[in-house]
Design brief:
The chain is of the alpha/beta class. It folds into two domains: 119 residues, Response regulator (Rossmann fold); 111 residues, Orthogonal Bundle (Arc Repressor Mutant, subunit A), CATH 1.10.10. Helix content is 56%, strand content 11%. The protein contains 13 helices and five strands. It has a five-stranded parallel beta sheet, with helices on both faces. It starts with a strand and ends with a helix. It is found in: Cytoplasm. This is Stage 0 sporulation protein A homolog. GO terms for molecular function: DNA-binding transcription factor activity; sequence-specific DNA binding. Keywords: Cytoplasm, DNA-binding, Phosphoprotein, Transcription, Transcription regulation, Two-component regulatory system.
């Protein structure tokens, strides 16, 4: 897999370079760019498989870069790198088909998980996300931000405590707002959303069946199968058989 890193902070760029190259020899960094304008030149000439790009950069930001690459009809997958406060950008990224979103500072496990998902889904179309904010238009703005984070981060570890902290509110208040506006607690909603995504992946044959638990945020396949049965009312095998 050929990868381009686009980040205006040199230290962050070099750190991500070392992180990705340490994951495996199959992940090749073909270039680095300090801004979107330079990145576009590299993408047009090298056509990388994946681009890790920051959002806020001089000359051309990350979203402008994605739009520019789309206009050239270059089939490159993007991983957005940004801060927690950029939820509106995350929503825009989803609508533009960005497959992954990472919150800085990134960890080895997060990057490895994303690279494995992208590698597993290479060449296959995945349409698993929906705009949750449209389903809850009257929800509190903080709940809407949390829903966006679920959309872009369902495949990674998400906790109510961490979300509340990054939204600047107590866990108790977040729990109250979420239950009030969504109609169920955060944990149950997240499980249902992940299983909903898993169903879509199964129907689209987006990733190998054995990789689906990890792709939707479960580290234990047995636990995934248990939750799938609880939510779907049938086992994974039964779901596949009933939807052929």
């Amino acid at each position: 897999m050929r990868i381009l890193i686009v980040e205006d902070e040199q230290r962050a760029r070099k750190g991500l370079f070392k992180l990705i190259t340490s994951i495996g020899d199959e992940f090749e960094i073909i270039g680095e760019a300090p801004d979107g304008r330079k990145a576009l030149e590299i993408i047009k000439s090298t056509k990388p498989d994946v681009v890790f790009t920051d959002i806020r950069m001089p000359y051309m930001d990350g979203m402008a870069l994605i739009k520019a690459v789309e206009s050239f009809e270059i089939k490159t997958k993007f991983v957005i790198l940004s801060a927690y406060e950029d939820f509106d950008i995350a929503r825009q990224a989803i609508s533009m088909g960005v497959t992954e979103y990472l919150v800085k500072p990134v960890t080895y496990q997060e990057v490895e998980d994303i690279l494995m998902r992208l590698q597993s889904s290479a060449g296959k179309k995945i349409e698993v996300r929906k705009d949750l904010q449209l389903s809850y238009p009257d929800a509190h703005p903080l709940v809407l931000k949390a829903l966006t984070m679920i959309e872009v981060s369902y495949g990674t570890k998400i906790s109510q405590e961490e979300l509340a902290e990054n939204l600047g509110i107590t866990q108790e208040y977040f729990s109250y707002l979420f239950r009030r506006d969504v109609g169920e607690n955060f944990s149950k909603f997240l499980k249902k959303y992940r299983i909903d995504v898993a169903k879509t992946m199964i129907l689209n044959e987006a990733v190998p069946k054995e990789d689906i638990p990890y792709s939707v945020g479960f580290s234990d396949p047995k636990y995934f199968n248990k939750i799938f049965r609880e939510i779907a009312g049938e086992s994974v095998a039964e779901f596949i058989r009933n939807n052929k």
